[in-house]
Write a structure and sequence with these properties.
Radius of gyration: 18 Å
Largest sheet: none
Number of strands: 0
CATH superfamily of the largest domain: Hypothetical protein, domain 2
Oligomer: single chain
Order of helices and strands: HHHHHHHHHHHH
Structural class: mainly alpha
Number of helices: 12
Distance between the termini: 14 Å
Bound molecules: iron/sulfur cluster
Strand content: under 5%
CATH topology of the largest domain: Endonuclease III, domain 1
Length: 228
């Protein structure tokens, strides 16, 4: 990529490069074993808030041996569920929310996960990030799930200049081609887990080191829909 700038890269190239690098380095986001159904994707996304990725994966894999549908959560008492997810942040609140959420899904949605943003946002413990992860990963719908990795890296690379993840989501929706929205989250997360880490990013080993504004003191913002 020497001789080019971030703004000259296509979104496909950027996402492919991030994904390749993240997979090569064993990023936790790509290490989930087996397929997950929409309900398990929703539960994982809720568990992941304020929690390290490694812990989310460990707890999810343990939980999903017993929990495949909302009814399975309702068979567990709040204390039993809390014990099963005790390694994630705010596990007590999450155990309570997961039981309430499972009850709503069974009673109001025929045990299915809704595939509309407005319905997802009404569920306990579900904010925009979680809802967008479900829409993108469970249903392949156009949604950009912005977590701390996406927010941090998009700003470091000069793709956006924002203060909060909600603003980043809005800005990215203006510049990422809609057919790629559902693909954005995982490559950014994997790249953030392995290369562009929150503290001490591995800039010297980064495939974007020759073009990243953080190292090259250039602006990358270009609101073209075909490139960055
Ligand atoms: S050069 Fe550094 S700051 Fe820029 S994307 Fe790579 S790791 Fe992140």
């Amino acid at each position: 990529m020497r001789g080019t700038a971030i703004a000259d890269l296509s979104w496909e190239d950027l996402l492919d490069t991030m994904e390749r690098e993240a997979r090569k380095r064993g990023a936790p986001v790509y290490s989930f074993k087996g397929e997950r159904n929409p309900f398990q994707i929703l539960v994982s996304a809720i568990l992941s808030t304020r929690t390290r990725d490694e812990q989310t994966i460990k707890v999810s894999e343990r939980l999903f041996k017993m929990v495949k549908r909302p009814e399975d959560i309702l068979k567990l008492s709040e204390d039993e569920l809390d014990e099963l997810i005790r390694e994630v942040g705010f596990h007590r609140v999450k155990a309570k929310n997961l039981r309430r959420l499972a009850d709503i899904l069974v009673r109001e949605y025929g045990s299915r996960v809704p595939d509309r943003l407005e319905d997802l946002l009404k569920l306990p413990g579900v904010g925009r990030k979680v809802a967008n992860i479900v829409l993108a990963n469970a249903f392949g719908k156009p949604a950009i799930a912005v977590d701390t990795h996406v927010h941090r890296i998009a700003n470091r690379m000069g793709i956006v200049r924002t203060k909060r993840p909600e603003e980043t989501e809005k800005e990215l929706m203006k510049i990422v081609p809609k057919e790629l929205w559902h693909r954005v989250n995982k490559p950014f997360v994997g790249f953030g887990q392995t290369v562009c880490k929150p503290t001490k990013p591995l800039c010297g080993e980064c495939p974007f080191k020759d073009v990243c504004p953080k190292l090259n003191n250039i602006s990358a913002i270009n609101h073209s829909k075909t490139s960055l």
